[in-house]
Design brief:
This protein has about 170 residues and is of the alpha+beta class. Helices cover about 30% and strands about 10% of the residues. It contains 5 helices and 4 strands; from the N terminus they run E-H-E-E-E-H-H-H-H. It has helices spanning about 10-25, 70-75, 80-90, 115-125, 165-170, and strands at about 5-10, 35-40, 50-55, 65-70. It has a 4-stranded mixed beta sheet. Helix 1 crosses helix 3 and helix 3 (about 80-90) runs antiparallel to helix 4 (about 115-125). The chain is globular. The termini are far apart.
């Protein structure tokens, strides 16, 4: 009988998930870490973490809705701050109501759009490329109020589509 040695169950990622839920209770309201299984694999990946939905028939054998896979080579290269940001990014990909069986969002993931990355952008200190930039902030060291109202984006007032220099050329 062969043994699978390419995957290890990881409590490290689960501990980060639980810490982020404690730090940001309003943002991750209803998030159930027991329904997220975490593994570290020996496979090669382009991103440090991958979120997968558990589908039928595997759903029959486990109570988990999601599996978070960390790729060991990339995960080992990251420091704690980048690991926390990567887990925060994965958690933001799971919509509110994803763990409620009566919700229309049950077991789904969020599609990438502005609202998906707004919380991550605010928590990282306004750094969009947090994986490459060491100026990104650790989410466990940020205040929970940063994600509520301030998304860290400086907004510029919208001006007319016409350029004023074009108006000066035409009488």
């Amino acid at each position: 009988m062969s043994r699978i040695t390419d995957y290890l169950v990881s409590n490290e990622i689960t501990n980060i998930i639980e810490s982020l839920i404690e730090k940001f209770p309003e943002l991750f309201e209803g998030f159930d870490p027991t329904k997220v299984k975490t593994i570290i694999s020996q496979r090669k990946g382009t991103k440090p973490l991958k979120l997968m939905k558990v589908r039928y028939p595997l759903y029959v054998f486990t109570d988990a809705l999601y599996v978070v896979e960390a790729f060991s080579s990339l995960w080992a290269e990251m420091d704690n701050k980048k690991r926390n940001l990567a887990v925060f990014h994965i958690m933001c990909s799971i919509p509110k109501g994803a763990f409620d069986e009566d919700s229309s969002e049950y077991g789904k993931t969020r599609k990438p759009d502005y609202s998906l990355f707004a919380e991550e952008f605010a928590v990282s200190g306004g750094v969009p490329n947090w994986l490459e930039n060491s100026a990104a902030h650790d989410p466990l060291e940020q205040s929970a109020s940063k994600t509520k109202k301030d998304d860290g984006i400086k907004r510029v007032p919208v001006t007319d589509a016409k350029d004023k220099s074009d108006d000066s050329k035409n009488p």
